[in-house]
């Protein structure tokens, strides 16, 4: 579960060991930034 303290979830990436690993081209805490 990669839900952050502010309630947002991992987007545009995969969750491994409670860390969001972004897909290529995405960034930010939850990979929400293109």
Task: Describe the fold and architecture.
- This protein is mainly β and 34 residues long.
- It has one domain (1-34).
- Helix content is 0%, strand content 24%.
- It has strands at residues 13-16, 19-22.
- Strands 1-2 form a two-stranded antiparallel sheet.
- A hairpin with a 2-residue loop joins β1 and β2 (19-22).
- It is flat, with a radius of gyration of 9 Å.
- The N and C termini lie far apart (22 Å).
- The model has no long low-confidence stretch (mean pLDDT 84).
Condensed summary:
This is EGF-like domain-containing protein. The chain is 0% helix and 24% strand. It has no helices and two strands.
Low-confidence stretches: none
- By DSSP (H or I, 4+ residues per run), the number of helices equals 0
Summing up helix and strand content along with how strands pair, one would put the structural category as mainly beta
Largest β sheet strand count, sense and barrel closure: 2 strands, antiparallel
Protein name: EGF-like domain-containing protein
Organism: Bracon brevicornis
List the defining traits of the structure above:
2 strands; EGF-like domain-containing protein; 34 residues; 0% helix; mainly beta; two-stranded antiparallel ribbon
